[in-house]
Prior knowledge:
The complex is a heterodimer.
Chain A: E1 4-15, E2 18-29, E3 33-37, H1 44-51, E4 59-64, E5 67-68, H2 74-79, E6 82-85, H3 97-108, H4 116-129, H5 145-158, E7 163-167, H6 175-190, E8 194-199, H7 202-208, E9 211-216, E10 219-225, H8 231-239, E11 260-267, E12 271-278, E13 283-287, H9 294-301, E14 309-314, E15 317-319, H10 324-329, E16 332-335, H11 339-343, H12 350-355, H13 371-384, H14 401-413, E17 419-423, H15 431-446, E18 450-454, H16 458-464, E19 467-472, E20 475-480, H17 487-495
Parallel strand pairs in A: 3-8, 3-9, 6-7, 7-8, 13-18, 13-19, 16-17, 17-18
Antiparallel strand pairs in A: 1-2, 1-4, 4-5, 9-10, 11-12, 11-14, 14-15, 19-20
Helix pairs in contact in A: 3-4, 3-5, 4-5
Chain B: H1 3-26, H2 33-58, H3 66-84, H4 90-115, H5 119-138, H6 148-155, E1 159-162, E2 167-170, H7 173-190, H8 192-202, H9 204-210, H10 214-240, H11 252-261, H12 273-289, H13 297-325
Antiparallel strand pairs in B: 1-2
Amino acid sequence: MSDEIIRLTGIYKSFAGVRALIDVDLTIERSRIHCLVGENGCGKSTLIKIISGVYTRDAGRVVINGKEFDELHPITSIREGIQVIYQDFSLFPNLTVAENIALNEQLAEGRRLVNWREVRRIAQEALARIEVDIPLNARVEDVSVANKQLIAIAKALRQNAQLIIMDEPTSALTEREVRALFSVIRRLQQTGIAFLFVSHKLNEVLEISETIAVMRNGRIVSVGDRSEYDTERLTFEMTGQKIAERNYEFTPDVGAPALLRVEGLNAGAALRDVSLEVRAGEIVGVTGLLGSGRTELALALFGLLTVDSGDIYVENKPVRIRSVQDAIAHGIGYVPEDRLTEGLFLEQSIGRNVVVRTVERLRGALGFTDLQKMDAQVKEWVGSLRIKTGNPDLPAKTLSGGNQQRVVLAKWLASNPRILILNGPTVGVDVGSKNELHEMIKRLAGEGMGLLVISDDIPELLQTCNRILLLRHGRIVEEIMPPQTDANELAAKLVEG
Amino acid sequence: MNRLLRSNEVLVAVTIVGLCLIVGISNPVFFTVGNIFDLMRSSIVMGIFAMGVLIVIVSGGIDVSFTAIAVFALYSTVRLLNAYAPEAPFWLAFVIAGAIGFGLGMINAFFIARFNLPTLIVTLGTMSMFHGFLLFAIGNTIVRDLPPSLTAFSRATLVQVQMERGVANLHPAIFFTAVIAVLVWLLMDFTMLGRGVYALGGARDAAERAGFNIRRIQYFIYGLVGLLSGFGGMIYGSLNRQANPQDIVGSELNVIAAVVLGGASLTGGRGTVIGSLLGVALVVIANNSLILIGVPSVWQRVVIGLIILVGTGVPAIQERRARRRTGGSASGPTQPLQAAPAAD
């Protein structure tokens, strides 16, 4: 048997006249970690679905394990050892870990009855193979995202996976969990299993992969060994343009009072004696591991977390923030990390999402909403934030990640906050949109807003912030100036302790 | 299997014991054999309905048409037998009622599986349709003369206890409910089909990807609910010795409430046979016994509503608290992405 698991040549695929894949060649070798990178909508997902047999190609050849397939059905693909782990993991939250691992296998064997002892045995073996320990009787909804991922891998292995395709596997994991995942992957690689990572987190792609394929607008524009790439080249290949991020420079206006000043904030074990200052035009980064209190800090400033003690001043005036309404009244805005559950009404139109915070101001005669005024405002924001949509009346869920994040931003900007807290502003956003969001953040600061950027994306912190606060166990342990550090040093500081 | 569910079942069981003690102490009649047999008799039909409702709710759907199916099956079977085969044995009545129920259930299944419509909308529609069709096309008068075999069946006794005044009878139909409950339990916990119902209710997309035939499972579910409703309706008519086309319809929410009280989640994926039976027991005891401690019958609905509210509210709040403690949350302001306990 050759070392190739899959060889795709000249694959074409169109949807209703839109060309999604154009002349795609891709080879995946045994025992190798491959990465497929590209911006949203470049055709990555389509390509995966061709490999997994979900979509039928329009033209091209597919050879799997040396056999040529004229037609590839999902079941054939699975039988040939190709397993796709989607972002939602395809797990059943209401069932136990053991059953989740064993269910597919039992189903594939055409069983009619469930042998619970067998289920446990299968699950035990599967978890032992990846050397992790997860309680078999726990319900999947009660385990962490990282464990869900490992369960999905264990499940794939039980079905004789030769190639495991992972769609954005690290988007919901913390730094530490990503390490753990990578070590499992490297171990499995030793046993002959190939991986295809689909990702847009460039630093992770560069760390784990051995072969990199970059897609842009439906084509594979570049393939090669890991050693041929660095962040700059990957960014260039993905976007087709050179994006050079400049650092953000801030010159304080000595006379003006700080926009936001926090003194001795305490909240249970989450925040301990936190003091900080944000001046007009500043972009202050807040970083730390999960559990360090970084999100709690944002929630406390936005009135969503009750604090035990501490003072908050807005432009030197002491304020009390006990609710979201208080925070908004004092000009504080918050863009949550999980834009899908916290930031957006996904089923509602883009336009309505933009104006939801300010709908009070759109009140016309008789107290009804002035629809013309609303349309004008929506149009203005869609234009100035470059939200890519054909029609702001479409539901927000039709937008890509980066554009959704922009709608959340627009929503907050529409209420003219003076202090804006951004939690993980570019989580799940591709590199092109990420740069645009960074530019937007800098522009806002340039216009005199004070920003607090909570993130564990180290390049992001270094490129956008003029100061970075490091949190550990609820305390600010260090203030870092980006020009005086680099990514490696910051990363080391982040995990130490 | 899961502590939360267990504790929910224990909670219901404790509530039942508590309620029994309160009622029994203030009125000793409660603990007489006669009363207990009465309670069991009242649970027979509701228990059967609850098994069907449980399966639907676990699959993530809801069926409000089963009462209409039940009365449709009962009434048309009785009219049919009276007209063409008054001497038919009682089991034939059950076969016919079951077949009618199954057929009507398949109509639900057709709309739900074929057109992928929301189950509540479909069954709300079919409930009106089935009941309206029954009243309009088959009959709207009460039939008091059942075929003799059914009348005999209604008088059957499993256990007879001599009381001070008269005798207390336990009807053998309780066996029917018990057998159905055991079969549903085996189906749900030990067959791939049953696990498919749980999988469908837990994550539909994942179930599809795993290779479950969702449509077939849905046809099975709604067909089975129809079948059970047909049986339930027939037993109801036999026990009451009449077929009233206005009966049963209107009690669907009581049954659904009983199943939810027993720990089934309206969002699907969760629910057990034992829990549902306990829920039925609680609702039946509350229904039949409040009068014994002097709660006026107009207040019974209020009390039952309160039990449902507290019974389903407390576990939900407990669950939310538990989640918050472990740091994860499905709804609160903390980040779902950080559901794992901090490792640093």
